Structures are given as C-alpha cells and as structure tokens.
Amino acid sequence: MSDESQLEARLEAQDEFEPPASFVEQANVTDEAIRERFEEEWPECWEAAAELLEWREGYDQVLDDSNPPFYEWFTGGELNASENCLDRHLADRGDEPAIEWVGEPPSEDNRTYTYAELHREVNEFAAALRDLGVEEDDVVTMYMPMIPELPVAMLACARIGAPHSVVFAGFSADALATRMESADSEYLVTANGYYRRGDPLDHFEKTRDGLDSVGHEVSDVVVVDRLGDDGFDHDRRENEHDYDALVADHEGAEVEPVARDAEDMLFLMYTSGTTGQPKGVKHTTGGYLSWVTWTSHAVLDVKPEDTYFCSADIGWITGHSYIVYGPLALGTTTMMYEGTPDYPDNDRLWEIVEDYDATQLYTAPTAIRAFMKWGEQYPEAHDLSSLRLLGTVGEPINPRAWKWYYKHVGNEECPVVDTWWQTETGGMMVTTLPGVDTMKPGSAGPPLPGVDARVVDAAGEEVNAGDAGYLTVQNPWPGMLRTLYQNDERFVQEYWAEYSDTDSDDSGDWVYFPEDGAKLDEDGYITVLGRVDDVLNVSGHRLGTMEIESAIVDVEGVAEAAVVGGDHEVKGEAVYAYVITEDGYDGGDDLRDRIVASVEDAIGPIARPESVVFTPELPKTRSGKIMRRLLEDIANGDDLGDTSTLRNPGVVDDIQAKVGGD
Ligand code: PRX
C-alpha cells in the first residue's frame, strides 16, 4: 500500500477525531467543564453572551419566563446592533478591514471596507433612509445580491431601529411581493443586477415585476448600480432612487444609533413551513445579537485579527448571523463572495482562501459534496495553510464528505464543526465546541452549553442511546425566535408543545419542536436525520412542498400535484413532482415546461423540479391522504414494502415504470 492509500484507509476507519492540539492551545473556549457550569448557572450563564456586547442600558433580568412560550431575554436592557457592529470598534480597529468583498468576475476591483469606511457609509445611508421617511419600526425589505451595500443597508436599518426583511435575490418576483405584503413593508432596497457565471443578470426587471404585484403602495425604492456599463436599460420611476446618489447627498452625515429595547425586533426573516404561506420569523436586538456573537466566539473561534469566510448568501439566516452580525460584533474581518464556487473554475473558493489568508471557512455540505466530485486537485493546487477551523451548516453531512473536508481542505489540522440550527433558532444549537469536544463525523455533536436539546419519542419521552426520535429543545435560549410576525397563534401551534408533567427544571413545561428527526448516541451526541415535516432541503435551501405544489396546480391542465424530496448526490434532496393532468391534457414536454416555469415564477430556480412525473393517480390511503413516503421511496428507487393498504395499489407500478423510464 502506498503512503497515501494507507492514510486514506486509516481515515476511512476512524470515527472519532480529537481537536488538534495546535488549535486547542489558542481556542477561545477550552473549559472542559463549561457544560456543567452553564447547567448549574442557567439562565444566568447567558450573561456571558450579553457581556460580549455594549449596552446603552443594563438589563434588569436575564430571562423573563412569566408567559411561556413567549420568553423574553435581557429585559429592560437597551442597545443598538449597528453601534455594536461598528462604532465600538472604531478606536481599536477603525483602519482594519471589516468587510473584504470579492466580486464574481475575476478581473473585478474587489472592495475592502475598513471599520471606519463601513461606519461612514452606514451613517450616510441611515441618514438617507430617514430622509426618505423611514421611521423606527418600519420594516425595510432588501432584495439584494451578495454586494457590500446589503450589509450596509442592514446596519443602516439597525441604526435607526427599522427592522429589515431580507429576501434572497434568487427568489422570484412573486416571492418578493408575498413577503413585502406580509410584512406591510413600504420600502425596498434592491440592485440593478449581479453576475452569475460570468454573465450580468437583470435583477431590476424581476424587482419591478414583484413591486407591481404588491397590494399596497410602496413609497420608495433604492437601487444599487452593481452592473455599471453592463447594466440594463430601465426608465426610473419617481420613487426609485439611486443608492450612490443618496449616499453622496448625505456625505459625512452622522446618525446617532437609536437605543433599542433588548426585545425590540432587529429583523424579520421569511422561511418555509408546511403551509403555502412563508413564515415571518421575528428576531430581537438583545437576545439574537448576544446569541450570534457568543456562538461566533465559542464555536467559530472568531478573533478580531481573523479573516473569517462564510460562503453562504446573506439572503438566508446563515449569512445574517455568521457573515454580518456575529463576526462584525466581534470586530473581525468578514469576507463576502458574490458568485458561485465554480466560476471561472472549480477552485474559486480555494483561490479566495489563499489570496486573503482566510482563517475559518464555514460552508454547506452540498458545497463539500460538489468539491469532492470535482476532485482534490483543486484545493491541493492552493496554499490553504491559513485555515484554522472548518464549519458546516444547513443539512446533514455524511462521514465521507466530512473526512474529505477535514483532510483535503483542513489538512487534518483544523477542527470541523458540524453546526445544527435553523432560521428560528437564530444561531447554532447543537455542535461540538472545537477546542473541547471529540468530533464524530456525521454527528453534529452534543448540544451547546446551556442548551437543553433532547431526542424524544412520540410521547415526549427521551429515547435511549442508539435510538431515533424527534429533536426538541427543552429550555429557552436568547437567540430564539420570539414569534411569527403578526401570528402568535401559529407560532405556538407550529413550534411548541406543552407537557403538564415533567421532571425537568423549573423553566416550564414548554418544549420547542424544530421538526427534525434525530438519533442519540451513548455519549449524548446528536445526529440530525432531516425534517419530519413537509419541508425539503435542496442544496441547503429550505423549501416547502406546499409552496411548490400550489405553483404546480396553478398551471392550466394540472388537476393535482404532490411534491416530495428524492435523494440527490450533490443537492442532498431534489424536487420530485408527481402530477395528474386534467381531462383533455397530455402530460408532455409542453406541460412539463409550463410547470417548471410556474415553480420558478412562484419561488425561484432553486425550487425547479428535478423530475416531473405524470401519473393518472396518486397513491392514497383509504382515507384519501396522499402517501408521500411512498412517493419518496419511488423517487429513490427504494423498496416499497407493503402497499396493499392503499386505496389504489395498482397505481404504484404505473408510477414506478414512469420514474424508471425518466
Ligand atoms: O433540517 C435541519 C437542517 O436545516 C433546517 C433549517 O433550515 P434553515 O432554517 O433554512 O436554516 C439553515 C441554516 C441554519 C433544519 O431544520 N439543518 C441545518 N443544519 C444542519 C441541518 N441538518 C443536519 N445537520 C446540520 N448541521
């Protein structure tokens, strides 16, 4: 055996990894007793998170649990997120880079914003927003690609106490309109376009389409000119303003950061659930900011002198928490990359890591699976020795991908943190602490200190080691969502269960259900298995099956549709649509194209069905419920087991034949 293959074989067989000594030596958190300590001191342990921030007014109480599950954290405290991310770093770090931005075109003049420069532009834009009429508590929507003006706009809103609602730029015009309507948002910040795989993309046209279908009046729209000479021609309407002109008009303006109550809303983030209507997750100023700052410190090991690189999009929660708020609150340098990892070649991320001496890389398993497929020659062609820590988020990572990442990107010298969390949790919840815990590839790890995550059965009882069940969180945490925007009832209904008899501590009997299945091992490590509701995870993007189904049944000629997730080598899950046509319509290419177009219009290209299967019937139980599990098994070519209890067992063979022939 060659040295190389001996090494591979050893790695293959190894299922536990200790944190590298060189990492532990310098880690932010190395206290082996931290979990016991936090448990004993709960909830006061979370003062450690609040202490990482600067407060205008100290809080009176760490946790107010008088009205569960409407918990409140750091009550009575006042602070401003923009001040915490900018002003307080000016004295020591004013001339250090806050944001290193890399545009997709390789010839791009990449931009560096020092803390002083970022502070200046945030102030100018905050002044501009105020002049447009934005007041405290007005929701400002952002529909922007990965350009520095996005975090500028977010921080400008935070500065004047206007919550932001960022809509992922890859979402469709309809998705933008729905979210603006749901949030009663009258202001929008957008861009004329961005680059994708070398081509300029007209984002403004999509924005216009969206704006035209918002049911209320949108008072002002700010447009960033990202494309310059590559821009597309659009006449400007009176309420559409040029970002650069607004900022120039407010040159040198200073806006005093508004003192916000700890429980005041910092932002809304829409995410998919089991119904067709996206949920507006509300995050607060004190609890959320403490949570993302503490977890950036403890898990991502962020230090001010780092150059930290998270390759997510700010349009999703990962980018909010771990590109913008957590890293900037700690005064570090955070990287932003506009484009895709395979442009102009498959080594783009490695080139960025090398050029900027990135110290951490936080990415999604779907990206790692793509890297693996492309081959180790890409990372190996670059000097990645600046990396100190690797992280993953968004979906389960299989041990093979974990080990590939550990070896070929981390050179076996970087701990890998597999962080489980959700839009709703605000930040990380289950993960190893990189300076403390043994890593087990494929398993996220134990809950974070102070987080009481447990795996339970259908009756709410904890499962034994080796068993699977539902993941739950049994005590509140500062970063938790406070409610669903203007829908307290749905918030309680969707996430919480009340148990009258519990032997847990006195934090109450309310248990949070993230809707994930999980498995527990003998060391208390949690392996997250995936969603147990009708939510798909396509390339780490969360999509509701109902949203996709309703876009499909909107198509003329479609009578009924069922959408499920099928396994996919790179995406994790792919969208499979089973469609019954109306009488007189053929399930042919034309209808298929119209279905795909409708899904793209309603949600965006990320939800595009991988496969559309026309079928005369859907498998249903005797009570008429669609058997989704069965459709998933068919998509995956799995053994179907007993199908005799179906109302229409014959349909299974028909569908299988079609999927097979696809
Ligand atoms: O199913 C879990 C999966 O992603 C879901 C949350 O999606 P979203 O709100 O879009 O947030 C993604 C970024 C935090 C979860 O319910 N998930 C997230 N992280 C992991 C994961 N599944 C397994 N392992 C993870 N580390």
Can you tell me about this structure?
By secondary structure, this protein is of the alpha/beta class. Among the domains are: 146 residues, 3-Layer(aba) Sandwich (Rossmann fold); 77 residues, Luciferase, domain 3 (Roll); 127 residues, 2-Layer Sandwich (GMP Synthetase, Chain A, domain 3). It contains 22 helices and 32 strands. A hairpin with a 7-residue loop joins strand 14 and strand 15. The longest helix has 18 residues. The two termini are 42 Å apart. The chain binds adenosine-5'-monophosphate-propyl ester. The site of adenosine-5'-monophosphate-propyl ester has 21 residues, from helix 13, strand 20 and strand 27.
Short note summarizing the structure:
With 662 residues, the chain is α/β, with parallel strands linked by helices. Helix content is 31%, strand content 22%. Among the domains are: 113-258, Rossmann fold (3-Layer(aba) Sandwich), CATH 3.40.50; 453-529, Luciferase, Domain 3 (Luciferase, domain 3, Roll); 535-661, GMP Synthetase, Chain A, domain 3 (2-Layer Sandwich).
Lateral strand order in the biggest sheet: 12-11-8-6-7-14-15-23
- What is the CATH architecture annotation of the domain at 113-258? 3-Layer(aba) Sandwich
Radius of gyration using CA atoms only: 25 Å
Bound ligands? adenosine-5'-monophosphate-propyl ester
Query: What is the class of the domain at 113-258 in the CATH system?
Result: Alpha Beta
